[in-house]
Task: inverse folding
């Protein structure tokens, strides 16, 4: 895939993630700066965590100014037009699934390139996809929503694992599309059907 | 500026930040260890985050024992004499503004020296100034106060941006005083007049 | 001590820590993935923070797949059999004290090997022991329990300090047993007698 296309996709994914962070900030009644920081954390947090853990510092997000401008501009747009963004939440969740699938694949490849074992690279690929949302929720003072029954992280791990194996074994790059499709398809079906991850047995989840 | 003066200023800023963390810990009824950890996190957190992100590890805070002793001793003093410190909260906020201005300038310079672009260095300078307070609030279980309408981060970013440009363009070191003054003046006027950052439009912030 | 024995002890400590994280997750009614992530964070968080701060990346936890499999398998066991684990909480706290003592000693040695000063190495040794539990509580949305009067961190610091001095001065390895015993003994006596750390004076802790 061309580098330009990858950069555009990457920035688009960051913008979508950032918009979910900005919406949480608006609902928490944060000020314009808090909304922007929450958007930056959500859009860039997963990749930054991965880069710090593999020792690739400064992280990519700090090497190219576009990685900062895109989520900041997204935050300002959400801040001003939040009622419109709020109404598009369903569509944002679909785009968010696309971003998730993209970041899991690219994150897993980058972690495998750093020489990690297959399991660790899959975990870091998953972290690239879900880390921003986790940090968003912790900073905003709520237990990460992805831990509370919504099926979000399992598709992420599946996609990251497939991508890691493809890279580790040196298979054709076309197989990355499979990794991407596994994560995206699983996540979208879960969204549509309201699938949830298993809750602890024997507790009354009324 | 002489290195000794800079070290003294740095330690003084850390002590002031640490005292705000210790006060939050006392009010949360943490034990003496919790108060100390919260003080260390508040005093050193911003610089440590910056150093980890630019790959300058071990962080400066771990290279010189004074960076650990000063906030720890501050925490113990606040723990014992917290009613007196609590009554000085107004004065502490003024000193906190001085520490903020100092850390934004020195943080931005260090980030620019690491070869980041101007925007990223400004962001890391801001993080150096506000990161400790953010971590303090997250660990203490509250949404960071700097996200809730108080005008704190905007002056920080302004000061960091000016300092980054001064360093990046190689202007005379005297101009750092301007960066410092922009942050400090803006913050103090905001404190005095009760200026707040804009909240999301169309929400009833009663 | 042989490397194999150290690895087995290390993994055992991680499993115990992970089980406390998984139990918190079950009580917060997280899904199976949330429980697993909380277990991974609790089991590995302290060591990962230490490794990132001394620049030893990728962290040891990502270099050997067993460091990921052991806490994940522990999490699944707790998820399924949580009533049984819940009833063993007292025994788990004793094992947790053993893990704490072990991690403080090994963490302090690793930090001292990285060339830090004695105080900083002691702090990082303490962080190796208590960092996972701190992160667990922050992610689970509660103020870290180790900050709220339970005597946990003081024994950790004592053990880490002794271990750092032993390593720094090049004393015989047998003295590590003393560091281990100081932390473990202090913690176990505190558990048994209900010792607590001092709370701020003059506040009614009713």
Result:
């Amino acid at each position: 895939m061309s580098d330009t296309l990858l950069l555009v996709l990457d920035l688009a994914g960051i913008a979508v993630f950032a918009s979910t962070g900005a919406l949480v900030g608006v609902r928490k009644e944060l000020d314009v700066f808090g909304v922007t920081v929450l958007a930056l954390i959500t859009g860039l947090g997963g990749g930054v965590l991965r880069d710090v853990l593999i020792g690739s510092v400064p992280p990519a997000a700090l090497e190219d100014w576009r990685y900062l401008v895109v989520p900041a501009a997204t935050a300002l747009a959400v801040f001003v037009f939040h009622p419109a963004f709020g109404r598009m939440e369903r569509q944002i969740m679909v785009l968010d699934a696309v971003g998730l699938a993209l970041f899991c694949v690219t994150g897993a490849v980058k972690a495998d390139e750093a020489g990690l074992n297959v399991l660790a690279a899959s975990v870091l690929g998953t972290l690239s996809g879900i880390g921003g949302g986790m940090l968003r929720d912790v900073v905003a003072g709520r237990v990460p929503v992805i831990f509370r029954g919504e099926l979000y992280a399992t598709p992420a791990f599946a996609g990251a694992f497939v991508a890691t194996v493809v890279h580790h074994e040196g298979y054709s790059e076309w197989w990355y599309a499979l990794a991407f499709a596994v994560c995206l398809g699983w996540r979208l079906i879960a969204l549509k059907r309201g699938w949830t991850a298993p809750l602890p047995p024997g507790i009354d989840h009324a």
Notes: Residues 3-193 of chain B form one domain. Chain B has one domain: 3-193.
